[in-house]
Amino acid sequence: MESTTSASAPLTSKKHHFRFHAKHAHLTPVFGNDWFALKAEGFARFFGTPVFLVAQTVIVGVWIALNAVGIFHFDVYPFILLNLAFSLQAAYAAPLILLAQTRQADRDKAHADADAQHREALARASDQRQSLAAAQTATLLELMQQNTDLTEVTRALSERIESLTEEVHRRMTAKD
Fold first, then answer.
1. What is the number of domains present in the chain?
2. Inside any domain, residue 67
């Protein structure tokens, strides 16, 4: 039990890599997040996969082979029913693909906006760091000048003390 607690603690304390996109999570896609929109988008995305293309090719091949050889006679040459099935598929595929593209464009726009805001925040933070560094440099230069001035005053006072000490020694030796 302790191993799962200690293992999950670092995960919750880490910042999520999409934390700048969180502000845009409330944006709903044009077609919503209901089951139909999600399934339609998933189906539209499936149209371009190798699995779909291979499966469709196999089905069409079997369809033509069964009807051409004469095992079944439900769609004899020129395969009007097969042509109708392709037309029906195209009639649904085009809008589903457009739906998927629109939803992806909305997600891309939201991510681009979040990225732009993040870049602006980084630029502001960089400007603030540069301003702070410039102010600290100016303060450091002022402190160095004050140190130089104090060193000069200390040198002048040391010379004055030395000359006064010599004068006191001369007068003390002159009295003797």
1. 1
2. yes
- Please report, for residues 62, 78, 85, 91, 153, the alpha-carbon distance to residue 81 in angstroms, rounded to integers and kept in the order given: 14, 9, 6, 15, 106
pLDDT tens for 97-125 read: 887 788 788 888 888 888 988 999 999 99
- At residue 169, φ and ψ (nearest 5 deg) are -65, -40
pTM above 0.90, yes or no: no
Judged against a pLDDT cut of 60, whether residue 87 lies above it is answered with yes
Q: Is residue 73 part of a domain?
A: yes
The three-state (H, E, C) secondary structure of the chain, written as one string: CHHHHHHHHHHHHCCCCCCCCHHHCCCCCCCCCCHHHHHHHHHHHHCCCHHHHHHHHHHHHHHHHHHHHCCCCCCCCCCHHHHHHHHHHHHHHHHHHHHHHHHHHHHHHHHHHHHHHHHHHHHHHHHHHHHHHHHHHHHHHHHHHHHHHHHHHHHHHHHHHHHHHHHHHHHHHHHC
Structure tokens at 8: 């999950």
For 124, the token pair is 């502001």
